[in-house]
Design brief:
The chain is α+β, with helices and mostly antiparallel strands and about 230 residues long. It has 3 domains: about 60 residues, DNA polymerase, domain 1 (Orthogonal Bundle); about 35 residues, no CATH class; about 70 residues, Hedgehog/Intein (Hint) domain (Endonuclease - Pi-scei, Chain A, domain 1), CATH 2.170.16.10. It contains 8 helices and 9 strands. The strands form 3 sheets. It has a 4-stranded antiparallel sheet with strand order 4-3-7-8. Strands 5-6-9 form a 3-stranded antiparallel sheet. A hairpin with a 2-residue loop joins β5 and β6. The relative contact order is 0.07.
Length: about 230
């Protein structure tokens, strides 16, 4: 087996190597500065969106980056008359600018969660199931089969008038009161109670648009027992 040779380097050679390492080589190539990314603040700043396209989007109700960010490519394609690929690029740019659908650190997400509040549903039992109520900064959907009682819980407060006298009580209290007066009628999987002397306030919807609140006569109040709350 060959023996390893011991190599000795003098201090002068080490100094020379150190000086060599400090030298910079001029290759004659000029470094090209990186192009600064365009800041997106308005619809016109989005890629492929000019004044005409921006006007079409605003007329259709897409007047902010957030609205564009949650739109679908097919929607923008039909509204703006652009290709689906171009619409997808616009949506992706809007999401990045609006900070929607991007990755964040766990501590940042925790801080965001701590700023979320809770809005009471009017039902203590339902609030408890939801962890204290409906979250702010979020969309909460209640879904179920047709007629499964998604609109009101039994302890939801209701405001109504009877012979010009204002009442404010839970919908269960209202039901029980008029059930004693007018009786219950079997209806579908529950019961209906006639309340022809009661007036309530409802949203006046015309073609799906809220045009105000109006007073209207009620006909019945309906009760169906929910079998389970998923």
């Amino acid at each position: 087996m060959a023996r390893k040779k011991k190599v000795e380097i003098s201090e002068d050679e080490i100094k020379e190597l150190d000086e060599f390492e400090e030298l910079t080589i001029d290759t004659g190539v000029t470094e090209i500065p990186k192009k600064k990314k365009k800041e997106i603040k308005t619809l016109e700043d989005l890629p492929g969106v000019g004044p005409a396209t921006a006007e079409k989007l605003r007329e259709a109700g897409y007047d902010s980056l957030e609205a564009i960010a949650v739109a679908s490519p097919i929607e923008l394609k039909e509204i703006a008359g652009i290709s689906e690929g171009a619409a997808l690029k616009i949506i992706q740019a809007a999401r990045e600018a609006a900070n929607i659908g991007t990755f964040i650190r766990a501590d940042e997400y925790l801080q965001k969660r701590q700023s979320i509040g809770r809005i009471s549903t009017g039902s203590k039992s339902l609030d408890k199931l939801l962890g204290g109520g409906i979250e702010t900064q979020a969309i909460t959907e209640v879904f179920g089969e047709f007629g499964s009682g998604k609109c009101f819980a039994r302890d939801t407060p209701v405001y109504y008038e009877n012979d010009a006298v204002v009442h404010f009580e839970t919908i269960e209290e209202m039901y029980e009161k008029y059930a004693k007066l007018n009786g219950e009628i079997p209806f579908d999987d529950g019961y209906a109670v006639p309340v022809d002397t009661v007036s309530v306030y409802t949203l006046d919807l015309i073609a799906g648009i809220n045009s105000g609140i109006r007073k209207t006569k009620a006909a019945y109040i309906y009760k169906e027992k929910v079998k389970k709350l998923a």
